[in-house]
Fold:
Amino acid sequence: MDKILIIDDDEELCELVSEYLSAEGFEIESANDGASGLKKALTGDYDMAILDVMLPKMNGFDVLRNLREKSKLPVIMLTARGDDMDRIVGLEIGADDYLAKPFNPRELAARLRAILRRASASDDPEVNEKLDVDGIQISASSRVATSEGVDLNLTSVEFELLSALLRQAGSIVKKEDLSENVLERKLSPYDRSLDMHISNLRKKLGLRADGTERIKTIRSVGYIYTVV
Amino acid sequence: MKLFVKIFLWFLAAISLMVGVTVFLNWTVQTEPVVSRWRVSIRNQTNLYTDTAAQIYQTQGESGLTTFLERLRAAETIREVDLIGVNGRSWLAEGVEPGSYAELVGRALAADAVEIENHVDTALSARQFELSPGDRYVLIVRWERLRMAPFFGESPYRFIRYGILLLTALGLCWALARYLSSPIGKIRDATHELADGNLNTRVAERVGRRRDELADLARDFDVMAERIENLVRSQQRLTRDVSHELRSPLGRMNVALEIAKQKSTPESAPMLARIEKESIQLNDMISRILILSKLESGSDDVEHERIDLTALVNDVAEDANFEAQAKDKSVVITRADTCNVMGSDNLLRSAFENVLRNAVRYTGEETSVEVELETKNDKATIRVTDHGGGVPDHELANLFRPFYRVAEARERTTGGIGLGLAIAQRAIRAHKGAITARNTGDGLSIEMTLNCENGLSAPSRQD
Structure:
């Protein structure tokens, strides 16, 4: 059973979420402040963490930043609704996904499953894909992407996005497909999370030596990893 | 007319009047005695000339008299000398007809004193006398009129003096008008800024260190602005805090609802679905209030990245079209010029999205919403036109007020909570743009104007 850590100062919410997610087949533990949450997260007992941004003692961003120094534990951020900066910052620091609060618990469960499935894909011995395109190496088994030998520190979503693009390098990958295969949800109008993940991925990849962008946007269709 | 111009002209008029009066008084006071002295001297000289003429005639005869008259004519202040005899003998100056001075001669003969007659710039003096006993003559002398020196003298520098006087007067008037009108202008600007929603506008410092009613007015303005700011801020804070606090129980309710659904029976399922629908609406409303209050509180810290407005408009229009198709409506782009703007992608996207979704919501079935992006003179105008009947003209300005609903036509049944356009307006304003609404006849047209940033030098944000 997947063990999930929820870090949120709203105890009642934690209880309710535990009850709901238990019924959905997860095992839940909670922490009510940033410091104890970080401590628990670092024990390695968990498969995933749900992290609220607004926390006493240490806010969610700091928890995530500290966590990312030592651990690749998948994290889903709970951001304040209507606060775009929060989710942009969250994704930049290395959250795997975000959900605006108040959230729909069904969606939370769906996202948890999607992220967990990706994370466990690396344990699958059958997937031992290795890609080496344009100076970027991807190893599906270790889930590490490197550029010229340097670890890019990608989150699991970014890793999947990059793999999907590199697998079809030189040809357009549709937004719908990326959304369904990587985010595991249907592309809905006005949803910008795919664009946001791609934009973070671009920043981590950097420009080519000649100053060109590696990933190009084909407006209203999708993205393409350009080949030189 | 502008206050500055008015004060300027009034003071200029006052100064001109004062200069005029001074010049006039000066002139009359100086002129009077000089003129009367001049008349006395003409009289004396005329007397002297007649006596001398008589003497010369007696000692030297007619030729001597002629020479004497010639000498008189050569004098600088004398223009003309005539000697007219009662018997018809005359010594006339060139060009003078014998009968020319008949009237003056008559008066001179009747009087036993010098007669003086003023002309435009000469004066005539006449005196009767006898060349020899019983032989009466009248001597007429035409004198140069006395010319008063002009106020500024006749030196070639007089124009410079005129100029200096004029410039000093103008400068003085300008300074005075400026002194009086500039604080008023500043206070007026501040009032405009405050009205535009810039609540932290203060003016006392701009007016400077004065101690008069205008400075008092500026200080009073600041006190007023302070109070308004506090009122508005506390109201905004209240809205934001309430919405913020509402989110926690709402979040818990969402989870509890899902748990209830897990355990629901077929009878309770429809009601739970209903509760979920309402909770989603509540959720939506709260997030919009929060976006709005965020925009209203600190909209100065807008991000500054280069945004391809054309792509943004295309993206959102495409999403909106997708959504509209489900309701037998559509969104068409009729024009899309290229334009880049500096600002926040999220804010502009949400502004345009709110306007567009609003239009899609109200446009009639089987009609389309037209989107137009026009770039002209570094200004980009996005026009969104629907075919939904429009709104009454007097409601147009109210459309951008939060929670405002146009009474008859646009009811809650159409969805939405009356915050979309308010959010759009705040977002556009945060980009120093403008948003306006007008009726087109069969629908509403919302126009957003932004400053284009098409220069190639500005670097895009790439962190």
Remarks:
- The mean pLDDT of chain B is 84.
- Chain B touches chain A through 33 residues (CB under 8 Å).
- Residues 3-74 of chain B form the longest helix (72 residues).
